[in-house]
């Protein structure tokens, strides 16, 4: 038996030991330095194991326990990609926190809680059986809960922790029930046995397989802050900034990882895939609309995360598993950086886009720009084999990405268009499409032996979802271009107010939470009305 895969356990164990270090507040700078060093070692171990998997294929260790319950690891391209991602973001967050919380009386404890959370996520992504995965899944949410309560006097943070606690327990229950269903079908909790069995599942197990897939989908949705149970992530902004960044190290996107880990099971259940696609698409639309109306940088980033997790689950629902994994990696790196640099994000946003000198682009110019971006997505997608029929998940996100460039293209066709500016803008837009679809193709090739191949459109329902998503985001793009004019009308002002409060979904959630689990402070009323 090779000892190499067991090296993966040294990373979370090392962080766990730092998390249990006694009297950490007496020497927080030293604890932080040790935590960063342990995190770097864990990252290096992950990179070494990733190279070993590329050379020799996946590593599967036997389970040290009884009846598939115990310690065992399943190391393949998926788990080690997530392991490296979690380790890298974890090191960045730990290094940032060394100075960010410096001077706080509980600086050392905060570092310890970060370490324990990262360790739980690392164990989650390398788990080789359902029992260990469930234990790490629960530990991740409990460790995050302790981070959310770092400032106990902030009532919004307490409210967020309580809402997250309830949602997490529902997610835990779904995952445990899914594990029971999978055990009834395959007679084992080990991933190797489950994945081997999905190639030819017994015909009498259709009910258990469908229920398992639906429960996995439900657990993923609950974990990923999807509409309408997304409100807790908005109050996370009351916690220290490193916590918001750490969410993107396999915590908020743990639901996506769960679906990808059991992609072979999910592919056997059309209802589960439809559930992911519908909830993910609706959440992506909701988050994108509300994000446009936010004035707080951190809250806007939170709604962006909600929307991006929706896109990720939409891709899973459409069978684009490799595209979803690429989305997880790209979004995690971008959003962790955005939160850690949120102090300068305002300047970046101001420099990122300027409106047309004449105000909103003329409807004809906007229509021309939208036609160009969608056509470019179709053409470039076809060149890379990512057509609407063959790879709907990859194409949908590519089309939405290209539509995001519509205002840029429309502004190039100003009242007095310059040939150089127009040409450069069009070439740049096409280059973005080429880069995106090239990454998709590379991702599919890299994870071909780990994740199921992208599924083509198979039913009318698939086509309807794709058309609705593309049409909805075309409408969002148009709305963004006309926000100035629409906002000047009474209807537009009312719409802006309703959207800025998230359609009051979180307000209702807060009232329910305060009714059944009150925060005993007069300030609670302030958070009861928060949208």
General description of the model:
The protein has 531 residues and is mainly α. It has 25 helices and four strands. The protein has helices at residues 10-19, 28-56, 77-100, 107-126, 130-148, 155-186, 191-197, 206-223, 232-235, 241-246, 254-261, 263-266, 270-291, 297-317, 321-340, 345-352, 363-383, 392-403, 406-412, 419-446, 460-481, 483-487, 490-500, 505-516, 524-528; strands at residues 59-60, 64-66, 69-71, 74-75. A hairpin with a 2-residue loop joins strand 2 and strand 3 (69-71). Helix 1 (10-19) runs antiparallel to helix 4 (107-126), helix 5 runs antiparallel to helix 6 and helix 17 packs parallel to helix 20. The longest helix is centred in the N-terminal third of the chain and has 32 residues, at 155-186. The protein is globular, with a radius of gyration of 23 Å. It starts with 9 loop residues before the first helix and ends with a helix. Mean pLDDT is 84; it is low at 352-358 and 522-531.
Helical content stands at: over 70%
Rg from alpha-carbon coordinates:
23 Å
| Principal-axes shape call | globular
Q: Helix-strand pattern, N to C?
A: HHEEEEHHHHHHHHHHHHHHHHHHHHHHH
Are there runs of 5+ residues with pLDDT below 50, and where? 352-358, 522-531
- Order of strands, main sheet, comes to 1-4
Q: How much of the sequence is in beta strands?
A: under 5%
The computed structural class is mainly alpha
- Overall pLDDT: 84
Distance between the termini: 55 Å
Number of helices: 25
Domains, number:
3
By DSSP, the count of extended strands is 4
